[in-house]
Design goal:
heterodimer; A: alpha/beta; 19 strands; 35% strand; B: two-stranded antiparallel sheet; 16 helices
């Protein structure tokens, strides 16, 4: 502590040299707390479980609207919601005074959700279900957020950047559904949309999912010679399916396809017994599997 | 302090303008700077009153138990509140402080009286245009006016004319100091208050320049002369105006802290060098810290956000901590020299029913809470939780209202009786007013922080979202409404005490009655 001098008069000459111990100790304490806080912020970036997204794209409102329209056409169900199967990206556009489209996501699954505004600035504020996540949305800028949704329910989203005289009416729900509901709706909405021409590689084993929607393949036993093995599965069923191989250290999965699609899986197999199955959650347990014997 | 007679050839010029010597401070006060200080201060108080009235209206609209205004009026009042309380009030006040600290404290004439009046006139014209177009309902874009949202172009022109006026005032301030020194009227280091106001003036310059870069394209866009304004770039330049300006306020608040400590306790800053370093730190950090407005914006990487937002935000706490300790340490050192003993003995010597001390203590307390809430929201990860929720208005009311406005009220209680030679109408009521304001602001901002943590959005006319709002939202918003009511009541009480002091306060020349000490006899 030093002398008191009036704040309205010129200080006595030599004031620039006085810097006693109390002041220095105080500044060291402040510096130490700054270092501590900075370490927490950087540490959380590396090891924390909720951080600000840093994946961005640049798309004009017209381009982004087109992307959202295609996405919506592909997955929109009869109830108006867009059921996004796991593994697919979701898109949401904010414009005065709506969020479009209404998204339905599968419970306890991680999604990448793309967000942008198509007219003025908007806020994305997910506040339902004990969440509190807030992002700024601007036209021309598209943010890619990785979001792991929780249990089934409807979660409130509001716009929290002032956007015009009806700003307070701008709200939406994020609908989270169980896997079974997701499957029904994905199929109902997207049936036939993703038809990949069935080009079957030479020497491949061809199988099919049950066309009635039962959780099984058209065979439960396959044989193959050691070496490269390819299984091609057609999906005439109303449910999403794929084909996968596991056993003896092998674990490979084909793409999940909707009705009319073809899922292909390849592996280099030694002689032994393997399991081929559908990896869509619950399907293998329900019996959608078989034995692949390699000789 | 003593008045230093300038060299004779200077004096010949100086005496052309009417001046008086203040009987208490010994300062030579020229007529024009005195009139200009008063004019700007009156405009500042009018802007504050308008801002406070808008604030009461929107605070009561946000309380679910009241819901005073319809949505159209709410957004107009919201825009008016931001413009009046966050732009007009601090800049008018800062210009008054600049005239006072450059001319009156240095015994000098203004560099140019004409420039001073021209700047005042432009600022008044700009302010009237802004408030007029807002009340007409054609500029309900919030004071931030983020494009592509557009207001009537009168709104942008009002902003620009006001900014040019303020810019002229900064120029006049700087040239007045230069002239005082080249004329030999002032020698040696600048007084701490002039130094502090100088720091505020540099920040005001940066802030206004940044505002022009943001608002000129926005104006051209609203007039239809250019096709688009990049919204993220606008946000950057706008907050170069908006946030830097708040540090003009903070510096002015710190100056008021030192003023109150000097008048109420006779205490000075604990260390001139320490204090001045803190002012320089404000100048260095206040502008780049605008990065924290981008923390959850698209297209900006986390590296930029961490450095320009989070780390700068943390750093900006340093000068405020330094000033806080320097003001309190100065009072402690003074009282210890007068015989206070023990760790807290000096606190027992203070009269807590003293209006200046009540305001100083409340201001230090609420500003400290505001510093904490700001540090929390400038943290990259926590900003994702607080961005555009009620946490943000809680932070800015803790700093700008609970910190700054309360400090100015306390400073006014001590300064006005000296200026008008009248005893404060009721010193006891003034102290109660300050404590009540402190309580109202603490209740309001604590409830707002609580609401923000629950996700209640800011700047919305209807928190219920037509019944879809969360059930936990109503309680904190209603409690905040109670705080708004207390603060408004206390603010009205401040005006009443001031007016009655000016009109019917007892005339006296007794320094003990004019400036009662906050130290127990």
């Amino acid at each position: 502590m030093a002398v008191n001098e009036s704040p309205v008069a010129s200080p006595a000459p030599g004031w620039g040299r006085r810097f006693p111990r109390d002041e220095r100790v105080f500044l060291w304490l402040v510096a130490a707390s700054l270092v501590g806080m900075t370490a927490v912020v950087f540490g959380w970036l590396a090891w924390g479980n909720q951080n600000v997204p840093d994946t961005y794209r640049y798309q004009t409102p017209a381009q982004y609207s087109e992307t959202v329209a295609k996405f919506t056409d592909r997955y929109q169900a009869e109830d108006g919601l867009v059921y996004v199967p796991p593994g697919e990206d979701a898109y949401l556009a904010a414009s005065r005074y709506t969020f479009y489209p209404g998204l339905a996501l599968q419970a306890n699954t991680q999604y990448r959700i793309w967000l942008s505004a198509t007219d003025v600035l908007h806020g994305f504020s997910l506040v339902g279900g004990g969440q509190n996540i807030n992002l700024e949305l601007a036209p021309n800028h598209v943010t890619g957020m990785n979001l792991t949704v929780g249990d089934p329910g409807r979660y409130l989203i509001v716009c929290n950047e002032y956007c015009g005289l009806d700003h307070h009416t701008m709200k939406a729900y994020l609908t989270v559904v169980p896997a079974a509901v997701m499957e029904q709706n994905v199929v109902a909405a997207g049936a036939g949309e993703e038809v990949t021409p069935g080009v079957v590689p030479a020497g491949a084993i061809e199988i099919s999912a049950d066309p009635t929607g039962a959780l099984k393949f058209d065979t439960s036993s396959l044989r193959a010679e050691a070496g490269p093995v390819t299984i091609v599965m057609e999906n005439p069923s109303p449910l999403p399916h794929n084909v996968a191989i596991k056993g003896n250290g092998v674990d490979v999965k084909g793409k999940v396809v909707l009705k009319g699609g073809t899922s292909t899986v390849s592996a280099d197999l030694d002689p032994g017994t393997y399991t081929f199955y559908c990896s869509v959650p619950g399907h293998e347990a329900a019996g959608m599997k078989g034995t692949l014997t390699v000789t | 302090m003593a008045y230093v007679e300038p060299a004779p050839h200077i004096l010949a010029g100086v005496r052309e303008e009417r001046s008086r010597i203040c009987g208490v401070t010994g300062l030579r006060i020229f007529a024009t700077p005195q009139a200009l200080t008063v004019a700007n201060a009156v405009a500042a108080v009018l802007a504050l009153a308008a801002g406070g009235l808008f604030g009461l209206l929107i605070g009561l609209t946000r309380a679910p138990g009241v819901e005073l205004l319809g949505s159209d009026w709410f957004y107009a009042a919201l825009t008016g509140h931001g413009v009046a309380a966050l732009i007009l009030w601090p800049i008018f006040f800062e210009v008054a402080a600049m005239v006072f600290a450059s001319s009156i404290l240095l015994n000098a004439r203004l560099f140019s009286n004409a420039l001073g009046w021209a700047s005042f006139a432009l600022m008044v014209v700009g302010a009237v245009m802004l408030l007029g177009i807002i009340l007409s309902g054609e500029a309900s874009v919030a004071f931030t006016a983020y494009p592509p949202l557009v207001a009537n172009q009168v709104f942008y022109l009002g902003y620009l004319i006001f900014a040019v006026g303020a810019l002229l005032a900064v120029v006049n301030f700087a040239l007045t100091i230069v002239k005082a020194r080249t004329d030999g009227v002032h020698e040696g280091s600048l007084p701490l208050i002039t130094y502090g106001v100088g720091a505020a003036a540099i920040l005001a310059l940066l802030s206004i320049a940044s505002g022009l870069v943001a608002l000129i394209p926005a104006w051209l866009y609203s007039a239809g002369w250019i096709g688009s304004v990049e919204p993220i770039v606008y946000r950057g330049w706008f907050w170069g105006l908006g946030h830097t300006l708040q540090y003009v306020n903070v510096v002015a608040m710190v100056v008021a802290w030192y003023g109150i400590a000097a008048l109420a306790v006779g205490a000075g800053p604990v260390n001139q060098k320490f204090t001045r370093i803190a002012f320089v730190l404000y100048i260095l950090i206040s502008f780049p810290v605008l990065g924290h407005h981008f923390l959850v914006d698209p297209s900006i990487g986390n590296d930029v956000k961490l450095v320009g937002g989070t780390l700068m935000g943390f750093g900006l706490g340093v000068p405020s901590l330094m000033h806080g300790i320097a003001v309190m340490g100065g009072i402690e050192a003074k009282l210890r020299r007068e015989g206070a003993t023990g760790l807290f003995g000096w606190l027992k010597r203070i009269r807590w029913g003293h209006a200046g001390i009540a305001a100083l203590a409340g201001s230090l307390l609420i500003f400290a809470v505001g510093g904490w809430s700001g540090t929390a929201e400038t943290t990259l990860q926590l900003n994702m939780v607080t961005h555009n929720t009620m946490w943000v208005p809680a932070h800015l009311h803790q700093t700008v209202v609970g910190g700054m406005t309360l400090a100015f009220m306390g400073f006014a209680y001590l300064l006005v009786p000296l200026l008008v030679r009248r005893e404060l109408w009721s010193h006891r009521l003034a102290a109660w007013q300050a404590w009540l304001y402190c309580a109202g602001m603490l209740i309001m901002t604590t409830a707002q922080s609580w609401a923000g943590a629950l996700g209640v959005p800011r700047r919305t006319a209807d928190t219920s979202y037509g019944g879809d709002g969360l059930s936990g939202w109503d309680t904190p918003m209603n409690i905040a409404g109670i705080g708004v009511g207390l603060a408004a009541l206390s603010g009205a009480l401040f005006v009443v005490i001031m007016v009655l002091t000016l009109l019917v306060g007892k005339r006296t020349e007794d320094p003990v009655r004019l400036s009662p000490s906050a130290v127990k006899a």
